Amino acid sequence: MQRIGSPNTAARRSRLRHGLAFLLSGGLAFMADALTLKALTVLVGLNPMLARLFAISLAMLVGWLAHRTFTFALQVPPSLAEFLRYAVVGWSVAAVNYGLFVLILLLWPAAEPLLALVVSSLFATLFAYLGMRYGAFRVERGR
Question: Least CB-packed of 4, 24, 41, 86 within 10 Å?
Fold first, then answer.
């Protein structure tokens, strides 16, 4: 039986906090993406495929700031190198996400763009986490 203060319990709590912070940060980026997409398609009348490019760009900035603050709880100030690593990961994941988004809309023209966004975003989430964990926010050994 494990005691409440055991190292395994602390490790599980740390992983849970990390996972919840990832979901929170991803949720903030998703909301920026979704609200921008909806505003540009409904209020401005942009084509959803074009509007999504603007939405992804804003969501990427929100995601970088949220993930570095909440998910990975970095104590060092943001750097250009970190942002560039995040941008490479982000645009790679965005390409997967956007490609699936467009494919859904092309195969199902009557689909609500927000539904296509949800499906494509869920699929891209795993790629996003792995890229952030091992690429964008990697911590150098010995630091």
Answer: 4
Q: How many domains does the chain have?
A: 1
Q: Is the pTM higher than 0.85?
A: no
pLDDT mean across residues, the chain: 88
Residue 143 lies in a domain: no
Place of tokens 């795993």: 126
Q: Which two tokens stand for residue 50?
A: 């074009």
In a domain, 141, yes or no: no
The predicted-structure confidence for 62-76, as pLDDT tens digits, reads as follows: 999 999 999 999 999
Three-state secondary structure readout of 75-136: CCCCCHHHHHHHHHHHHHHHHHHHHHHHHHHHHCCCCCHHHHHHHHHHHHHHHHHHHHHHHH
The span from the CA of 12 to the CA of 111, in Å, is 40
- The pLDDT averaged over each successive group of 10 residues in the chain (143 residues) is 66 89 93 96 95 91 94 90 88 90 95 92 87 80 45
